[in-house]
Automatic annotation (TrEMBL), chain A:
GO terms for molecular function: zinc ion binding. Residues 299-311 have a biased composition (Polar residues). InterPro entries: TFIIH_Tfb4/GTF2H3 (IPR004600), vWFA_dom_sf (IPR036465). The lineage of its organism: Eukaryota, Viridiplantae, Streptophyta, Embryophyta, Tracheophyta. Coiled coil: none annotated. Component of the 7-subunit TFIIH core complex composed of XPB, XPD, TFB1/GTF2H1, GTF2H2/P44, TFB4/GTF2H3, TFB2/GTF2H4 and TFB5/GTF2H5, which is active in NER. The core complex associates with the 3-subunit CDK-activating kinase (CAK) module composed of CYCH1/cyclin H1, CDKD and MAT1/At4g30820 to form the 10-subunit holoenzyme (holo-TFIIH) active in transcription. This is General transcription and DNA repair factor IIH subunit TFB4. GO terms for cellular component: transcription factor TFIIH core complex; transcription factor TFIIH holo complex. It comes from the Eukaryota. Residues 299-320 are annotated as: Disordered. It holds the Pfam family Tfb4.
Automatic annotation (TrEMBL), chain B:
PANTHER family: GENERAL TRANSCRIPTION FACTOR IIH SUBUNIT 4 (PTHR13152:SF0), TFIIH, POLYPEPTIDE 4 (PTHR13152). It comes from the Eukaryota. Keywords: DNA damage, DNA repair, Nucleus, Transcription, Transcription regulation. Residues 379-446 form the Transcription factor Tfb2 C-terminal domain. NCBIfam families: tfb2. It is found in: Nucleus. Belongs to the TFB2 family. This is RNA polymerase II transcription factor B subunit 2. One of its GO terms (molecular function) is ATPase activator activity. GO terms for biological process: nucleotide-excision repair. Its main location: nucleus. Component of the general transcription and DNA repair factor IIH (TFIIH) core complex which is involved in general and transcription-coupled nucleotide excision repair (NER) of damaged DNA. It comes from Dipteronia sinensis. The keyword Disulfide bond does not apply.
Amino acid sequence: MASAPSKLYSGLSLALSTIFFFFKVVEGLDSVIADDVSLVVVLLDTNPFFWTTSSFPFSHFLSHVLAFLNAILTLNQLNQVVIIATGCNSCDYVYDSSKTANQSFGNGRMPTLCATLLQNLEEFMTKDEKLGIEEAEERITGSLLSGSLSMALCYIQRVFRSGSLHPQPRILCLQGSPDGPEQYVAIMNAIFSAQRSMVPIDSCYIGVQNSAFLQQASYITGGVHHKPQQLDGLFQYLLTIFATDLHSRSFLQLPKPVGVDFRASCFCHKNTIDMGYICSVCLSIFCTRHKKCSTCGSTFGQAQSDDASATNRKRKAPDS
Amino acid sequence: MPQVKIIAKNFMDMVASLTARDLDNLYQNPFICEAILRSLPPLAKKYVLQMLYIEGSVLAKSMEEWVLADGFTKHRVAIDRLVQLRIFSEEKKKETSYRLNPTFQTNLQKHLIYGGALPREPMPSNVTVRLPTLEELEAYALGQWECFLLQLISSAQAEKPTNFSSSMMKVFQRGLLIQRDKESPRLSESGFQFLLMDTSAQLWYIIREYISNSQERGVNQADLISFLLELSFHVAGEAYNVNTLSELQKNMIKDFADLGLVKLQQGRKDSWFIPTKLATSLSISLTDSSSRKEGFVVVETNFRIYAYSTSKLHCEILRLFSRIEYQLPNLIVGAITKESLYNAFDNGITADQIIAFLQQNAHPRVAERVPSVPENVCDQIRLWESDLNRVEATPAYFYDEFPSRDVFEAACDYARDRSGLLWEDSKKMRLAVKAETHTHMREFLRGQS
């Protein structure tokens, strides 16, 4: 995590590990959801490394998403949309419908959505690019999904605390870039805190290979994961699947997970592995044998037969 | 029982009962399309969105595959609603299929892609002198509404009379007040229930009465509905020029000002109207969603009520079922007593309504608690109510001197099957049946002999 480029990010990852332990289940959430008023936090992948290689241009993608956001806001006057841009060096809020609704632009609410969103997005992209140039020596081409996820959760926590009459929140990840295994711990922490506060994470993956992180996020939090087959029809996918409010979800057929990629990343080299060593105290995952757990500091006892573990090291878990 | 409630909830039924031509005309206006979409049940909204870009019709069978088995009744309700409002048209060739109303469809499509504009441009700020802040506007709206309500329930109490003609007021009062000869009018049973409803439900009740009354005055219902729904898309707190309205709308806007929906202001040259929160939230309250308003009442286990309110109306409402002990500038203190409750029960208010009112209006501090109204208070209110219902009187007919035991038993069975048997004494062969089964019983006994 120390190699993370921006200040914002390292601050956030620190906050995350504390959030994971101190989240309280908000009371009253388990009560039956009676209405369809919803707060949708959309995480928009703006990673230029992905969009330059994608066959589906960013401008098309954005026009689909804008129409989708209009649709969400049309469904209910109390619906709220927040957009967080996920860049490759930073992430930021680019639109919040509750703030702009009160501002009286001369040309009305809906055009305001487009205008503010595009303007903020452009500002964000230039800022993000500058940050990238400063940290040029170690280029990370993944998106900071963990950062934007935790920003979304922070926003939702604030909504929860604003009183009992808050809309039903959910998170929608529109992600195209491949998983960054180095963010594994931070993302898993975010997923678990979303699970504890009962916020479903929906995910729509528009990249080439499917994302294991997003599959797990939706699976654990009870959201919907989908990878559209035809990107030209993205709008229809978004409307049919992701516009469904939490109340209606109990009555509608939605895509079910066909097999979730549960592989984890090790804490030491951030490799994606399906077999490894686990600390029996704090459940940290390692791809090689260690004398001491780097997370909780507990010392591992000597394995019973050293030579056996050397030949068969993937299967052997260290005894504590 | 709660007749008023049903009326208030189903404003959309009134829209649905418009003629097909009126409805199709309504959909010419994109704002109406949006407002109607918002008023639909959640599942129906979903279907409209899903069908929005499908040209042509979709088979009813394939739509049924969208829902899980649990949601089938909801699915039927949604489809019925859409057909009723003529948003879906049914096509029956070999199999039933549905398609979206083309005008509705194009209007919504445009709305999603280009984004809607406002119904009319707000006036530039250099023309309007000083606009009220949102807080001032909200206070104004609530004040206006309460003043109207006070006048409605007792004309003498209102501080300043509204512009509504007394005939109009009579229309509103119809059903809420009863006047026995020579006595001053008092609240009827449904009047009390009306007072206990939340503001938006009350507002819709009044508006419904207003609209159905307007037809008698020769104003088209569809015009009124469309203007009302359009009004809810204006921005609260912005000024709009009155001259942009038609003659008919100018007349209506004056009435709406009395209800607190808009505030009218007069400049040097122009006059303008400023929509309040009450107006802009009209289309929210069309759905069945739970009311989103902060409460003010704290009930303690010792039957005391503390109401943090400055409103005279709240005080009047509390007086319906409790004894008001003192009134401080921002606090009303009362107690629920047996006498005050008996008073309420006499007026036709039920225990459940009182408890529901206390729960809905619970102060945010106690609303977090479960239950928000102490259990012992709820139980006692219900007990006092059931005290009154210990003896039940039912009109009945009494039969005796049966010729034989067989006839008697056949008669008993017959009455029991029609659930009309109240009492039987098989030794002396006597029985009593409800008055409404008497005619059948007589026929039956005639056939026996």
